[in-house]
Every structure is written in structure tokens, then in C-alpha cells.
């Protein structure tokens, strides 16, 4: 599937999953749907038939609250049957709101508490270099998540150790739990922060697939180069007019009627 | 203990390229040999314990066998959630090593005392918890950790702990070790480096006519409940000794076993009070101040036994 179709399918799943499950974070999941679609359709070397293939590229969804989007992209990429997605948030299901790897093929790492993904990603990238393997490690971060000190501990480590196969993708939608990032805890000059920690920074429109593709493709070799940060400028709730840039949709699931309108807007009606 | 640990770890690292040591910028004079001999298997993560723990999980998930190292509270409490979520939930082969268990860094003050670590690590699912009592137990525990892997917590003393076992010991995960005689009246159960004071206290008790045996518990999780249940049937009283808060450590582990066993064997828990302390002093000074030195242990045991008339009459 091409990345645009994949993103459309992910958005439709996310809307249905959050509506059926009465779960939160639909806006966060829509925000990163294009990032995940470009990764899984055009960048990653993974094998859905062998999710634990030792040389696979690794993806860590550090913004674990957008788990619905990760589950959807994995199902659409063939890691498991999309028919189970409706079990998201349901009693007895493994498909928790925040990402869990247990029982779900293709999920590399469980997250949910913020600030955990980048240190683990740094460990995976360090280990790739130590053992001479060629996998790349992608960590998808939320912008609000970058308030966590552990993000910057890992950023400093990866910069110092020149972990060039490590890619941090920041879903920079400028919204967090109670308001904008500017109101909450200012991130700017955000790109300069990453640069000053020794990272190569690429800014891109996080919904523009042709722009994202080259930004996300980094070499597999690690000699003397910088880790890459892709600052992906995104819109929270992207694709659904009444959800875009609204803090409300960090929390609120769509009603049945809102679901129909939203599905139509993302081209899945 | 510390040097014993590092020499054992280096020996293992020389034949196992997957073994990785990460320090959070501590171990001056202790990590040098490892770092020089195996630079590719050594990382100084800097003063950044959260990153160290997450890094360890990442390396372990890609086939590494990782030991993280720092003083007392830093590799444990400072990054507790990373240990819980990143290491334990993912069954990552990481052993968290804390040097300076209990009051070993006494004069540095409360920040450097490890006095709740056993309780907290014991509460984490899937985490083995080890606190060896002397250098021989360090060897035994380390060989089990190297063979069986993590998630695990290893609480070391510092340096200079005296050898209490006469020969090498074997301590597979979940076992405890008797020292000296058996068949006495009371059993002193000990975990960690306070084993020396426990053994000395047993001597003092024997000198007072109380036949005291000693059993070391280098593992708190998995815990040797079988030995405790058996001891409950054989001894008039069990006494636990630990350089740790009275909340959640060895005393609690033994109490949990006894509470679910038949019989009413008395239990005397000798531990630190559940309070923060701002008293400064070296380890020996602080043990005495908290009544954890051999004299105090012996006295407290005798007082407890005498306070319990029925028990005292049995013992005399």
C-alpha cells in the first residue's frame, strides 16, 4: 500500500477505535498518522511475517498515548489482522490505550509514561553499532513529551556517541494536555536545542509525504556522524476539521454522529 | 565486595562479548580495569540514571546482557520507573547494581544511604533481588546472575567486608545459607553485608547461654520460604537482621511467610526505624547509633526474649 492510502486507512481505524472504545487521544493519533504511514510504507526494513527478525529496523512509539495509530499502522502493514482493532480499550483486550507489546506482533516497546523511548532507542542504536549490525532505530516523540528531562539525557548521550542510525521524530503539533506548548513550557528555539546536543535537524511538514520520505531515510552505517532529529510540523487532529488544533480532542472520543462526519472527512465514509 | 564484583564481572566479560557494563559516572578506581580491558563493552552514561536504565533496556532487548552501576539510591530510586516499565515489563536482561548498601556511605548523609532499596526492588514484578553477605556470597550470587540473567537487583556493600564463609559457597537463586551450627534455640536471619554483625551477635548470645544459629539470605526474591517454614518448626524464635528500613525488607519477607504458615513462632525484626535520619557518621558509628551493631543486636534479642516470659522460660 502507498503511504497516502496507508495514512487514510490509519485515520479511519483510529477514528473507529477511539469511538468504539470511548478512548482518549484521538487528536494525538491523527497527528502522527502520516509520520507512521511514511515510515511503514516507504522507509522501514521490517518483515510482518517475521516481526522479530534480528536485523529489522526498530520503531519505538515514545508518545505511547497515541497507541491507536501504531496498532492501526501495524495491522494495515500485515503484522496482525485488522479485525482485532475493534478490541482497542475493551475489557480483556491486549490493545491498551497506551502502547503495550505483549501479545501484539510488531510492537517493539511498551510505553505510556513519557520520556522513556529515546533512552531505549539510544540503547538499540548503540547496540547496533557495537555488534556491527545495520538496523536503524526510530523514536517517535510528542512535543509535550520533550518536557521530560530523560529525553534530553538521551539526546545528550546520542549526540556525544554520534549514534547516526538513531532518528528522533518529533510530532510537533504544538498542543499538549492543557494548552499549547508555548503556553505550557516553551520549546523554542526547538531545532537549536537539538542541534546544540549534537543532532542533525531536519524540519519538515509532518503531513507532506514527499517531504518526509528523504528526511526519514538515514544511512545504515554509523561512522562519525550525527543522530537525526526530524522536527515534523503537524496539526493535532489532522484530517478532521472539527478536531484540528483543539485540546478537547486530546481527551474526548467521537460520538457516533461525529464519527460519521469525521470518517467522511478523512475519505473513509 | 565491590572489587570482588568487578573482578568477577570482568572475567565473565572477557569470554562474553554481549556483557555490557554501564556506570552513571561512578566507580573511580573500581571500573578502570573493566574499561581498559573491554572498552567496547563499557559505557559511562554520565550523571544520568534515567537514561542509563533506558539505555540498558535497549541494549538488552537487542541481545546485550547489561549491568548498570552506581552508588546506593541513584541506579534504583532515581530511575525507578525506567526499571519498572523498561526493564521489568520487557524482561530485559539487566542487572541493576548498587554499591554502598545500607549505611556504607554513612558520612555522606541520607542521600547516599540505601535503606529502602530492598523493599522497593522486591515490589517490582519479575525482579530478582540479591544482597550478598560477604565476598564469597558475591561470587556465588554473581555466578547465578551471569548464568540466569536479569531483571535483577544486586546490592553490594562497599569494600573491605570480611569473609564469613570459610570456603566457597553456592547460592543458587532463591536459596539461603546456614553458617556455623544448626539445632540451636534461636535463628538469626541476615541479609546483606550486616552478616558480619549478625555472626558476631550470635557469638555474644552464645556467650550468654542462648544457642543462636545464623542463616544468610543473599536472595530476597525469589525468597527461601521453605527454609523459613522449616526454621519456624525447629527454632523457638526467628530474628531478622538487616541494614535497611523495617518496612518491606527481610523482616517483612519472613513475616509474610510466617503469617501464612501454621504455628506461632515469634519473630523479632531488627532493622532501621522507618524514619529519615540526618545523623552523620561512618558505617560502624551509624550501626551503633541505630542499634544494629553486634552488641546492640545481641542486647535487643535478649531483651525481646526476656520480655516474652513464656519464651524466656523455654529458653532458660
Main attributes?
heterodimer, A: 269 residues, alpha/beta, 5-stranded parallel sheet, 5 strands, 38% helix, B: 316 residues, Rossmann fold, globular, magnesium ion binding (chain A)
Count of all domains of chain A:
1
What is the β-strand count of chain B? Answer: 12
CATH architecture classification name of the largest domain in chain B = 3-Layer(aba) Sandwich
Order of helices and strands of chain A: HHHEHHEHEHHEHEH
Describe this structure in words.
The complex is a heterodimer of chains A (about 270) and B (about 325). Chain A is of the alpha/beta class and about 270 residues long. Chain A has a single domain (about 5-265), classed as 3-Layer(aba) Sandwich (Rossmann fold). Chain A has 10 helices and 5 strands. Chain A has helices at about 5-20, 25-30, 35-45, 65-75, 115-130, 150-160, 180-185, 190-195, 210-215, 255-265; strands spanning about 60, 135-140, 165-170, 200-205, 230-235. In chain A, strands 1-2-3-5-4 form a 5-stranded parallel beta sheet, with helices on both faces. In chain A, helix 9 links the parallel strand 4 (about 200-205) and strand 5 (about 230-235). In chain A, helix 3 (about 35-45) runs parallel beside helix 4. Chain A starts with a helix and ends with a helix. The mean pLDDT of chain A is about 95. By secondary structure, chain B is an alpha/beta fold. Chain B folds into 2 domains: about 1-155, Thiamin diphosphate (ThDP)-binding fold, Pyr/PP domains (Rossmann fold), CATH 3.40.50; about 175-315, Rossmann fold (3-Layer(aba) Sandwich). Helices cover about 40% and strands about 20% of the residues of chain B. Chain B has 12 helices and 12 strands. Chain B has helices at about 1-15, 30-35, 50-60, 80-90, 115-120, 135-150, 195-205, 225-235, 250-260, 285-290, 295-305, 310-315; strands at about 20-25, 40-45, 65-70, 95-100, 130, 150-155, 175-180, 185-190, 210-215, 220, 235-245, 265-270. A 7-stranded mixed beta sheet of chain B has the order 2-1-3-4-6-5-10, sandwiched between helices. Chain B has a 5-stranded mixed beta sheet with strand order 7-9-8-11-12, with helices on both faces. In chain B, helix 1 (about 1-15) packs parallel to helix 6 (about 135-150) and helix 3 runs parallel beside helix 4. Chain B is globular. The N and C termini of chain B lie far apart (about 40 Å). The interface between A and B is medium-sized, with 31 and 28 residues.
Amino acid at each position: 500500500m502507498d503511504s497516502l492510502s496507508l495514512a487514510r486507512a490509519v485515520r479511519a481505524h483510529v477514528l473507529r477505535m477511539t469511538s468504539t472504545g470511548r478512548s482518549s487521544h484521538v487528536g494525538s493519533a491523527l497527528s502522527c498518522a502520516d509520520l507512521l504511514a511514511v515510515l511503514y510504507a516507504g522507509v522501514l526494513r521490517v518483515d510482518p511475517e517475521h516481526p522479530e527478525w534480528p536485523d529489522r529496523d526498530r520503531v519505538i512509539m515514545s508518545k505511547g498515548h497515541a497507541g491507536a495509530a501504531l496498532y492501526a499502522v501495524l495491522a494495515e502493514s500485515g503484522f496482525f489482522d485488522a479485525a482485532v482493532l475493534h478490541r482497542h480499550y475493551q475489557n480483556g483486550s491486549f490493545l491498551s490505550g497506551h502502547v503495550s507489546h505483549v501479545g501484539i506482533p510488531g510492537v517493539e516497546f511498551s510505553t505510556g509514561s513519557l520520556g522513556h523511548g529515546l533512552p531505549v532507542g539510544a540503547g538499540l542504536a548503540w547496540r547496533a553499532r557495537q555488534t556491527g549490525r545495520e538496523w536503524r532505530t526510530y523514536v517517535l516523540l510528542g512535543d509535550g513529551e520533550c518536557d521530560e528531562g530523560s529525553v534530553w539525557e538521551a539526546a545528550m548521550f546520542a549526540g556525544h556517541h554520534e549514534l547516526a542510525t538513531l532518528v528522533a521524530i518529533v510530532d510537533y503539533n504544538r498542543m499538549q494536555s492543557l494548552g499549547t506548548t508555548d503556553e505550557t513550557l516553551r520549546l523554542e528555539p526547538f531545532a537549536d536545542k537539538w542541534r546544540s546536543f549534537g543532532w542533525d535537524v531536519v524540519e519538515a511538514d509532518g503531513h507532506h509525504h514527499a517531504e518526509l520520505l528523504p528526511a526519514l531515510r538515514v544511512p545504515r552505517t554509523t561512522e562519525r556522524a550525527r543522530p537525526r532529529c526530524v522536527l515534523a510540523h503537524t496539526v493535532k487532529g489532522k484530517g478532521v476539521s472539527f478536531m484540528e488544533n483543539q485540546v478537547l480532542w486530546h481527551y474526548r472520543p467521537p460520538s457516533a454522529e461525529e464519527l460519521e462526519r469525521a470518517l467522511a472527512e478523512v475519505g473513509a465514509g | 565486595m565491590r572489587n570482588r564484583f568487578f573482578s568477577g564481572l570482568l572475567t565473565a566479560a572477557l569470554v562474553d562479548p554481549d556483557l555490557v557494563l554501564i556506570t552513571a559516572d561512578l566507580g573511580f578506581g573500581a571500573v578502570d580495569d573493566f574499561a581498559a580491558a573491554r572498552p567496547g563493552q563499557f559505557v559511562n552514561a554520565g550523571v544520568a540514571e534515567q537514561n542509563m536504565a533506558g539505555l540498558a533496556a535497549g541494549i538488552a532487548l537487542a541481545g546485550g546482557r547489561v549491568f548498570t552501576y552506581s552508588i546506593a539510591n541513584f541506579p534504583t530510586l532515581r530511575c525507578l520507573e525506567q526499571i519498572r516499565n523498561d526493564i521489568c515489563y520487557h524482561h530485559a536482561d539487566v542487572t541493576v547494581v548498587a554499591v554502598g548498601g545500607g549505611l556504607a556511605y554513612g558520612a555522606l548523609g541520607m542521600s547516599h544511604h540505601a535503606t529502602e532499596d530492598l523493599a522497593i526492588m522486591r515490589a517490582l514484578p519479575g525482579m530478582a533481588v540479591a544482597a550478598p553477605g560477604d565476598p564469597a556470597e558475591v561470587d556465588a550470587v554473581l555466578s547465578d546472575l551471569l548464568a540466569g540473567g536479569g531483571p535483577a537487583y544486586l546490592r553490594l556493600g562497599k569494600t573491605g567486608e570480611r569473609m564469613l564463609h570459610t570456603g566457597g559457597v553456592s547460592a543458587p537463586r532463591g536459596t539461603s545459607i546456614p553458617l556455623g551450627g544448626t539445632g540451636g534455640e534461636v535463628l538469626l536471619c541476615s541479609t546483606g553485608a550486616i552478616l558480619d554483625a549478625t555472626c558476631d551477635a550470635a557469638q555474644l548470645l552464645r556467650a550468654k547461654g542462648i544457642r543462636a544459629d545464623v542463616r544468610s539470605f543473599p536472595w530476597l526474591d525469589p525468597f527461601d520460604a521453605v527454609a523459613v517454614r522449616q526454621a519456624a518448626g525447629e527454632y523457638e524464635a526467628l530474628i531478622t537482621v538487616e541494614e535497611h528500613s523495617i518496612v518491606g525488607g527481610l523482616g517483612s519477607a519472613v513475616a509474610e511467610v510466617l503469617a501464612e504458615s501454621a504455628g506461632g513462632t515469634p519473630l523479632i525484626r531488627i532493622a532501621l526505624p522507618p524514619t529519615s535520619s540526618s545523623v552523620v557518621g561512618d558505617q560502624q558509628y551509624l550501626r551503633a547509633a541505630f542499634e544494629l551493631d553486634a552488641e546492640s543486636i545481641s542486647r535487643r534479642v535478649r531483651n525481646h526474649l526476656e520480655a516474652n516470659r513464656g519464651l524466656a522460660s523455654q529458653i532458660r
